[in-house]
Known about the structure:
Chain A is of the alpha/beta class. Helix content of chain A is 37%, strand content 24%. In chain A, helix 16 links the parallel strand 20 (423-427) and strand 21. Mean pLDDT of chain A is 81; it is low at 251-258. Chain B has one domain (48-298): ABC transporter involved in vitamin B12 uptake, BtuC (Orthogonal Bundle).
Amino acid sequence: MSDEPIVQMTGITKDFTGVRALDGVDFTLRPGEIHAIMGENGAGKSTLIKVLTGVHSPDAGRILLDGRPVRFHSPGHAQSGGISTVYQEVNLTDNLSVAENLFAGREPRLGPFINFRAMRRRAQALLSDIGVDLNVAAPLSSYSIATQQLVAIARAVDIEAKVLILDEPTSSLDREEVAVLLRVMRTLADNGCALVFISHFLDQVYEICDRMTVLRNGRLVGEWATAELPENELIGHMLGREIEALEALERRSSAGGAAEAAPLVSAKGLGRKGAIAPFDLDIREGEVVGLAGLLGSGRTETVRLIAGADRHDSGAIEFDGRRLGGHNPRTAAARGIGFCPENRKTEGLVGELTVAENMILAMQASRGWARAIPPARRAELVAEFIAKLDIRPANGDLPVKNLSGGNQQKVLLARWLLIEPRLLILDEPTRGIDVGAKADIQRLVAELSEGGMAVLFVSAELEEVTRLSDRIAVLRDRELIDVLHQESDMTTERIVDTIVTRGGAE
Amino acid sequence: MSSTTLTERPTRSTLFDGLSRYIPVGATVVLLAAMYLGGIARYRNFDNPQLIPDLFIGNAALLIVAVGMTFVILSGGIDLSVGSVMAFSTMACAWLTVDAGLPASVAVPAVLAFGVLSGTFTGAVIHYFNVQPFIATLAGLFLYRGLTLQISDHDVSIREIDFFSWGMERVEFGDPRDGGFSLPYISFIAFAVVIVAFVVLHYTRFGRGVYAVGGSEQSALLMGLPVARTKIGVYAISGFCAALGGVVAAFYTKSANPLAGVGFELDAIAAVVVGGTLLTGGAGFVLGTVAGVMVMGLLSTIIAFQGNLSSWWARIVVGVLLLAFILLQRVLARSGEKRKG
């Protein structure tokens, strides 16, 4: 490993309409190393990468590539300078074939015409170099996202990249695919390429990276060799506060009196063909009910039935003693049921509207369009919830799409809290967001239920479910198989056990 | 190093995928064949060997303009200015040769160069100022129509200019009484445009870039493709084709009508869509556009043979066809999404 850095960024500063995304950040990358950039969402990782690859131009600072100052003005320009990037979302065109995607813009030619035969042959060779075997003439759209990701990497590698940046490449891959990817990364580094790796998965970072640079709130925290930085210290650096924040949030003991009260929500034989088998479930005021199960076990389907987002075709559901007929999210909201769906981008937030406008949506809807919320009252509410949920940047006038994932999730939560629901349904509220925001949301759920709200909570992370829930409904194969409520049952082991044994007994 | 090798077969069969790309075009070809055979079965003289060649005489200008439009639509844009650019080009040919007395060998290249320049300008506005193609080219639609009327608000005859009689001179293929037919030079101009367009779209970097930009402009940019050059290029090509369409119209009518080609841009778009090109860009074939133009031409022919229908029926049927094709595209796109899960 040579000590002469290939990339040296010093004092990089970047502002976005009043928000300082990067503040004097230094970053050094050496040939043959895999270097992780770590930080919470909104710490400035993506911005730093985009400055390096010419998507954004820095407001201050200097970039040296191979010792020479450079300033790229587009990703294409950076690419020709030897810096290639593979993004989280596959940025290829899936209407073209695999081979065309690999060679787009630099196809082998005979005279002015593309030599398709040579292109397919070279594509095959290129992919087999990294251990991937595909039909290169098939359209890219016929392959899984994971495979498309590998094609993107193969493309980046073939452009004789001196620097390869991987921005969250593993977030949509399964285990085996991740293994292939990490192996490919190591091969590339051994060949002298410098790799920048951004990932939320700490285990992957520790497995593959030689060095890490930690950012927080747009500032550099420091650079460490991986071996010298234990995981808990890393998290401490990323959060800048005691990690105990997460751990201090002990699982609350079941609210004693609540168990005796009449249920707020009572589902009897509620079901929908093809989505979830008929189930019974009660939720009392001040109670957190968690839904646990594997992906595809019917978690989302269950909450959508209760929220009225989908119509049930069997059974009945009562809310506060009154039967809900063909309810939909609108009538449900009017009765006091708030529903935060799973996919915040497509089902929840309106990206172009501001934070304040997004927050106010549900409240406005429940008042009717004719009765506008007075501006002063509105500003007051928005400020209150921004502070309460610690939404950053604390500016209600920013378009919501400019916020990081965790903060977007908080805006969505604020929207429903504004209408003061009696039942709050959260489907995967902490997926894909950073540890800090996760802790904030978990704390909030605990506070809300102590205040008497009933919460139905879905999460793929069993630890989170066990930490927060008073009772846990376990799902498997689109069936509610058990409801755990004993103190001693509230462990991840017990849930896994239930899923395995109860499923096997069928 | 070959401990883990990833082998993946396409999630849908390549066969299906290969075919699904051709379903819209295939539907057009089947429709075309059905119309032709139906015509033969129903009407006397429909099997006249001159019938199909005639489609490429009256529709030569439409074919040329629609080919230009195919580039634009494949890239994900739209060009509403082509009808006006075409009328302006015809009028400019007439004005330069009749009034200004320039030789046609100067006037015609000047008009074609104008088409390229105006398209380049439109493309640059669309790309660099991030203006909606619909809006930018709508401005061209008004601008060039106005300019055309400014030159002359009545028909200008170009019969006196010898050059313009060349285009309708015919090349004979066999004896007309013996299954032969004839075609004028303007049809060959249109064929040449189709062939060049086909080669450019399928066998050059620029052509593949058009598909890539139409597939996802954002991705194309991040892949380092010359997006600006590609986007501006397609409008330049469309401008050139519109101007050439205007020259061909001058050959065909031997006069310049300031109100010629009103709504022509919509005919061109209809031909492209009926020819199976996706309105959202990224998928389609220039040969499909040829089939689309033939469908529209054959429709008018059938209505003429029927004799008791008004010519507006052609429009009604085109409207229905357009709707059917757009729905077909949606159904295919949706089934594709489903397969991908």
